[in-house]
Specification:
- The complex is a heterotrimer of chains A (189), B (72) and C (87).
- Chain A is mainly alpha-helical and 189 residues long.
- Chain A is 60% helix and 0% strand.
- The longest helix of chain A has 29 residues, at 152-180.
- By secondary structure, chain B is low in regular secondary structure.
- Chain B has a domain at 1-5 and 23-30 and 41-63.
- Chain B contains 1 helix and 2 strands.
- In chain B, strands 1-2 form a two-stranded antiparallel sheet.
- The termini of chain B are close together.
- Chain C is elongated and about 45 Å long.
- With 87 residues, chain C is an all-alpha fold.
- Chain C contains 2 helices and no strands.
- Chain C has helices spanning 7-32, 37-61.
- Classes of the chains: A mainly alpha (189), B little secondary structure (72), C mainly alpha (87).
- Chains in contact: A-B, A-C, B-C.
């Protein structure tokens, strides 16, 4: 069961009417290392990972949905009032022909989201290393998005999202340590 | 450039068509922590939200590169 | 929707996002540090602050959660605009 909260995790502001940015930002919506893939990857792994780290996967997976909503907010604000002409100028005419102003789970190159972005190997160490890699890859994507964006308000929200990847990556590495069962605060169950 | 950046210089051929661009990458602080110690210093709640983490030791700043013809 | 949102909405919302963020960070931390009593105490303290803030926000601007987790008010406003991505 999930409870929706009518609130963004972080205030998202978009200060320029620049639909072109939406074309890049969509990478983190429906791309391989995007927020949808992240949420579904972690929540799916919960069913086979050892009990000790299910809580962490649940909570990070849930937070990823909040990040997905932040990216959606940016794309929504950048495209909702864009005319077909503006969409065309932004290189979004192909998108417009299929989806009008609807959001679509695809990457910046228009390739639709696919379940093959998620490996789900079933081995806890392999799965957690996939998660660590996914977080570092998403961090890198946020860097390239910050580089390519000149809207300081969008950059501000992207910097927040980038830092979250760094924290998540650390937590997943701590989860590996928990499964190795020899970190300092060893406890008896 | 802050202390989290590492730079490297790829081999440069006299036949490279473009002027060389400096190459660098970030190593965020999470790479130096195996297990977060208890009781780390914290940001104030307002600062934590702004930085995207509660702990200054986990914070990695990032500014856009290639701004107005210059590079970070 | 052309109705405007008050400045207070943004202020309260930011306050709530601030306190909730501390709770998110502490949640993930406690998932890997369940024995850290100091972090648990801080979590409890921020949870109290969240409860007060949520109550104030919901009195002024309507429910934040539904499925019975927030008071619905005199009329059903849960399904009314604005939604988070619209503000």
């Amino acid at each position: 069961m999930w409870i929706y909260e009518k609130k963004l995790q972080y205030p998202v502001r978009v200060s320029k009417c620049d639909p072109k940015l939406a074309k890049f930002l969509i990478e983190q919506y429906g791309g391989a290392d995007g927020e949808l893939a992240a949420a579904l990857r972690y929540l799916n792994q919960r069913y086979s990972i050892p009990d000790k780290v299910i809580g962490l996967l649940t909570d990070i997976g849930t937070e990823e949905f909040a990040h997905l909503e932040m990216i959606a907010t940016m794309v929504y604000k950048l495209t909702k009032d864009a005319t077909p002409e503006q969409m065309k100028a932004a290189g979004l005419d192909g998108h417009f022909a299929d989806h009008d102003n609807a959001l679509s789970y695809h990457n910046a190159a228009g390739i639709p989201w696919t379940a093959t972005y998620i490996q789900a190997k079933g081995d806890p160490i392999a799965d957690l290393y996939e998660d660590i890699a996914a977080e570092e890859k998403a961090r890198a994507t946020y860097q390239w998005l910050i580089d390519i964006t000149d809207d300081v308000d969008i950059q501000d929200a992207l910097k927040f999202l980038r830092e979250r990847e760094i924290v998540h990556s650390l937590r997943f590495r701590e989860a590996v340590e928990i499964l190795k069962e020899h970190h300092s605060s060893k406890k008896v169950f | 450039m802050d202390g989290q950046w590492r730079s490297h210089q790829p081999f440069r051929s006299p036949f490279d068509p473009c002027p060389p661009l400096p190459k660098a990458y970030v190593v965020p602080p999470n790479q130096y922590i195996t297990y977060q110690p208890e009781g780390l210093k914290q940001f104030s709640p307002r600062e934590a939200l702004k930085h995207g983490t509660l702990w200054p030791d986990l914070y990695s700043p990032y500014e856009a590169r290639y701004k107005r013809g210059s590079q970070a | 929707m052309s109705e405007s949102i008050s400045k207070e909405y943004y202020q309260y919302m930011h306050e709530l996002q601030t306190v909730d963020f501390v709770l998110v960070e502490l949640t993930l931390y406690l998932d890997t540090h369940p024995d850290d009593q100091q972090a648990l105490a801080q979590f409890t303290q921020f949870q109290r602050r969240k409860r007060v803030l949520m109550q104030q926000f919901e009195m002024a601007f309507g429910p934040l959660q539904e499925f019975g987790n927030s008071p619905p008010g005199q009329t059903w406003t849960w399904s009314s605009s604005p939604w988070p991505w619209q503000v």
